[in-house]
Amino acid sequence: MRFGVSGGLFPNHVDEFQESMAAQVRELGFTGIFTRFDRDDPFATTDAQCRRVRDILRDYDLTMVQAIGHRPPLIHPDESVRRQAVKTLRAAIRIAAALGSLSCHTGPGSMAQIGADQSDWGGAWDPHGDNWDPICRAQLVKSLKEVAPAAEEAGVIVGLEGHVLVTLNSAEVMRQVLDEVGSPAIRCDLDPVNWLTLDTVFRNGPAIDHMVDVLGNRIFNAHAKDVVVQKRLVIHIDECPAGQGILDYATFMRRMEALGPERFLVVEHCSVEELPTVKAFLDRKAAELGIRVF
User: Fold this and answer.
1) Would you state the pLDDT for residue 122?
2) Where are any strands of DSSP class E within the chain?
3) Cβ(101)–Cβ(66) under 8 Å?
4) What's residue 121's pLDDT?
């Protein structure tokens, strides 16, 4: 197994990435990174800008696991918006390839993005009553089929993430969409916390088993965070840093390791100050499970 890191350790602009950041990743014991240069214009970022970052990562023997895909609304029923979303993701795939990234991360987008400035696809995970409309799912499949050739040509995986709030609201829906698209370049980034509900959160080990059973090798990498149920009415299922909640990490890590030791668990949604504690938790859990960390 391999561990990567994302979040506040890295800037929002490619030109702000510094050698000191790569050094800090290494000092923390991670071997992969997920950058979110989401304040850059994906149509304006140059290969030269990407090569500078790629060279730094090479010098520190770090893998770019994922680069941000700007999460455009691939589900949008307005064809002009959807086509622009496809163009945005294709541009992000080009950037990911120039960075030497294994994958380009995106979600399906949300209908809450209606009216957003198309240079800034905010609200990609926001709830909206139309996110589960059949037209959104059909548009997502259509968009991914149009994106797939660019990903295949670039040698970059599109890592698709789901959530109960968006169109990809279960492992079953994720599998159906991936199979309908039918491209080896379009796969799943598994974040089990995103699919937990009140029915599954307290006994989430079986839920994780089910997700992996449904998706199998469609899973490319996974995101490492945790889950808590707040003592507030009505229902508040919140995320927290790995090791601080009730996620069954023994099941999660065993299942990911069984898919292949080359896969990364990418730590996210924790502060820079919390990273040493999170890394120590993951290392300890891996040792308990007899999992080798590369």
Assistant:
1) 83
2) 2-6, 32-35, 63-68, 103-106, 157-160, 186-190, 219-224, 226-229, 237-240, 264-267
3) yes
4) 80
Contact (Cβ atoms closer than 8 angstroms) between residue 108 and residue 121: no
* Coil vs helix vs strand at 1: coil
CB-side exposure of 112: number of CA atoms within 13 Å? 14
- Tell me whether residue 294 is in a domain: no
Q: What CATH number is given to the structural domain containing 180?
A: 3.20.20.150
pLDDT digits (tens, 9 = 90+) for 180-209: 999 999 999 999 999 999 999 999 999 999
In this prediction, residue 74 carries a pLDDT of 98
DSSP 8-class letter at 13: S
CA-wise closest residue to 193 among 220, 215, 224, 168: 224
pTM score, two decimals?
0.95
Q: What is the mean pLDDT of residues 35-45?
A: 95
In a domain, 284, yes or no: yes
Domain assignment present for 213: yes
Q: Is residue 7 part of a domain?
A: yes
Domain holding 54, by residue range, is: 2-289
Q: Is the pLDDT of residue 282 over 80?
A: yes
Q: Tell me the percentage of the chain whose pLDDT exceeds 70.
A: 98
Contact 3/267 with Cβ under 8 angstroms? Answer: yes
Crossing angle for the helix pair 275-289 and 249-259, to the nearest 10 degrees: 70
The dihedral formed by the CA atoms of 87, 53, 11 and 107, expressed in degrees to the nearest 10? 30
Q: Report the C-alpha gap between 208 and 190 in whole angstroms.
A: 10
Cα atoms in the Cβ-side hemisphere of radius 13 Å centred on 264: 23
> What is the number of domains present in the chain?
1
Which pLDDT score, from 0 to 100, does residue 119 have? 56
